[in-house]
Amino acid sequence: MRHIGWFLVLLLAAPAAAEPLLYRISDADSAVWLLGSVHALRSSDYPLDDRIESAYASADRIILEVDPMELEPAHIAGVMMALGRYEDGRLSDAFSSDEFLELQLGLAAMGVDIEQLQPFEPWFAALQVFGLNLARNGFAGTEGVDTHFAVRAANDGKSTGGLETAREQLALFDNLPAETQKTFLLETVADSGGFRAEMERLVETWQRGDTDSLQQLIDDEFSDAPELRESMLNARNRNWLQPVTDYLDRPGETLVIVGALHLVGAGGLVELLQSEGYEVERVTSDE
User: Fold this and answer.
1) What is the spatial distance between Cα 156 and Cα 152, in angstroms, rounded to a whole number?
2) Residue 253's pLDDT band (boundaries 50, 70, 90)?
3) How many domains does one find in the chain?
4) Do residues 142 and 51 make contact, with C-beta atoms less than 8 angstroms apart?
5) Which whole-number Å values give the CA distances from 77 to 58, 67, 173, 181, in the listed order?
6) CA end-to-end span of the chain, whole Å?
7) How far is Cα 89 from Cα 216, in angstroms, rounded to an integer?
8) Is 221 helix (H, G, I), strand (E, B) or coil?
9) Is residue 286 part of a domain?
10) pLDDT tens string 167-196
11) Domain around 133
C-alpha cells in the first residue's frame, strides 16, 4: 500500500476513446446498470459518454455508494468530526519528533498551519490535505460522477438510494491501523507536488475503461497490505452483491454507481455477479 488517497477518486469524464466502465445485467422485466465512477473530476471532463447518458435516461432509480440524502456537507462534516477528533490526544502524539517535523514542514509549504489539525487523527488530516490538493488542481468532489448524477436525479424526480452509510464508509479510514494512518498522511503531503499529473493519469485510465490497468493499480498498491484490500474493496463488494441483485426483483431499471475499482478484477462486483450465475454484459460501442 502506497497511496490510499488515489483510491478516493476511483474507489471511498470526458468523451472516451474506448469503452466506459459500464455493465448491464437483466431479466424479463428489469435491468441493473453498473457504472464505475471517479469521485472527483473537473467541469471540463463533461459531457460523459453517450452510453452512460443513455443508461441514466433509462433508469428509474439511481443508487450510489452512499445515499445522496447523507451527502449533505453538514452531515458529512458532523460524521467526520465525531470519528476523527481525538478524545484524549493530539496529532503530534502519533508521530516521532522527526516525522512530525517532516509533516510540519510539508504542510507549511502548502500554506497549512499544522496547529489547525492537531485535534484530529491522521486519517482525518490526510483527507483534509487530499481535498485541498483536489481543489488547488481544479478537481472537485462536486464534479464527481456520483454527485453529478445525484443532483440530476433530484432534479428529474428519480428515486435514489445507497449501498452503505456515510458513517460506515468513513469508519473504514477511522479503523485503519495507526501506522497505515501515518503513512496515509505523510504520503498525501509528500505527493502534493505531483498531484495534478497523477490525477490526470488516473482519470485518463478511467476514461479509456482500461480494466487491465485499473486491476494492476489495485495489485500494485495493495501488494503489501492484503488486509487493507480486504476491508476497503473485497468485503464491501461482497456486502453490496445482494442489494445489487435485489434490484432485479423490482420492475424497471436501476443505475448503480460505485467507484471504478469496485468493478474490476478478482473480488470485483462483476466477477462476483458472474460467479453467482448472472450474465454481465459490458456495454460497448457495438450496441
Assistant:
1) 6
2) very high
3) 1
4) no
5) 34, 16, 15, 19
6) 38
7) 38
8) helix
9) no
10) 999 999 999 999 999 999 999 999 899 999
11) 4-261
